[in-house]
């Protein structure tokens, strides 16, 4: 298995999933991945399910065209099972990193009039996902008395001199 483009900060609190040479359109998958990035795992799964049922939509910001949602959902399910295996709390997982890359084009042919043949190319993609367990925010403890800064010999001498003048 290849190297991931992003390594999580805390390896013990995160899990990974990857799909290579997937027969889904790159453009659609790229937009779906951008839509679910930094969502909680359960919310992302629900969102993709709603997109398939046409209850919610994926905003197309870069590529304005139409289905890489179902495969992304399968990949999230795979990452969830990896998290279960590693003993992570599935309800606290957040999509830290999701990346979609172009895979080599697959070539088919379509037959045209007068004996011509045209290419019928598909643009598959590679997808990688890293889920990380969200950490609880802990309030910083306040110090009762801030520690005084140690003064240099020069400043101490000046203070003594000031005291003697007064």
UniProtKB/TrEMBL annotation:
Coiled-coil blocks: none
SUPFAM superfamilies the record matches: Ribosomal protein L22
Cellular component terms (Gene Ontology): cytosolic large ribosomal subunit
UniProtKB keywords: Ribonucleoprotein, Ribosomal protein
Classification via PROSITE patterns: RIBOSOMAL_L22 (PS00464)
Molecular function as annotated in GO: structural constituent of ribosome
The keyword Amino-acid biosynthesis belongs to this UniProt entry's keyword annotation: no
Example GO biological process: cytoplasmic translation
Family: Belongs to the universal ribosomal protein uL22 family.
Name assigned to this protein: Large ribosomal subunit protein uL22
């Amino acid at each position: 298995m290849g190297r991931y483009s992003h390594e999580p900060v805390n390896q013990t609190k995160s899990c990974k999933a990857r799909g290579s040479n997937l027969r889904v359109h790159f453009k659609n998958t790229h937009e779906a991945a951008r839509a679910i990035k930094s969502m909680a795992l359960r919310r992302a799964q629900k969102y993709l399910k709603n997109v398939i049922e046409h209850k919610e939509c994926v905003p197309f910001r870069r590529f304005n065209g139409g289905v890489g949602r179902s495969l992304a959902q399968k990949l999230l399910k795979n990452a969830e099972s990896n998290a279960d295996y590693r003993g992570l709390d599935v309800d606290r997982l957040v999509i830290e990193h999701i990346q979609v890359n172009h895979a080599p084009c697959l070539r088919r042919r379509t037959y045209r009039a007068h004996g011509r043949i045209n290419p019928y190319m598909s643009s598959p993609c590679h997808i990688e996902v890293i889920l990380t367990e969200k950490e609880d925010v802990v309030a910083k403890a306040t110090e009762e008395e801030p520690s005084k800064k140690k003064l240099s010999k020069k400043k101490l001498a000046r203070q003594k001199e000031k005291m003697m003048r007064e």
